[in-house]
Amino acid sequence: MGKKREFAPIKASWPDPTKVPCKDCLHRDKTVIKIDGKEIKCGITKSFCDMYPGPPIDNGKPGEILFENADCDFYEEE
């Protein structure tokens, strides 16, 4: 039998839903899920919204908006 492969741990980062400017934007994805009775507004951390609809129109929100909490040109408070 061959030598066993070793894999590095998987690492990832996600936008912080409490800091991302999309959290109260009129154009945000308003998807909400419930897990163990807790409501999670998962749509605000998605890469797409009404103003960034995704391929083939565009590539979604810039990383600066999601990960660096930069201002969005399309932001409108709900």
Description:
This protein is mostly loops and about 80 residues long. It is built from 1 helix and 2 strands. It has one helix at about 65; strands at about 35, 40. A two-stranded antiparallel ribbon has the order 1-2. Strand 1 (about 35) and strand 2 (about 40) form a beta hairpin.
Q: Which helices and strands appear, and what pairs or packs with what?
A:
Layout: E1 33-35, E2 38-40, H1 63-67
Antiparallel strand pairs: 1-2
Which features characterize this protein?
single chain, 78 residues, little secondary structure, two-stranded antiparallel sheet, 2 strands, extended
Write a brief caption for the model.
The protein has one helix spanning 63-67, and strands at 33-35, 38-40.
* Span between termini: 61 Å
Order of helices and strands: EEH
Rg, Å, rounded: 17 Å
Mean pLDDT: 91
What amount of the residues lies in strands? Answer: 5-15%
User: What does the oligomeric state look like here?
Assistant: single chain
Q: What is the molecular shape?
A: extended
Tally of separate helices: 1
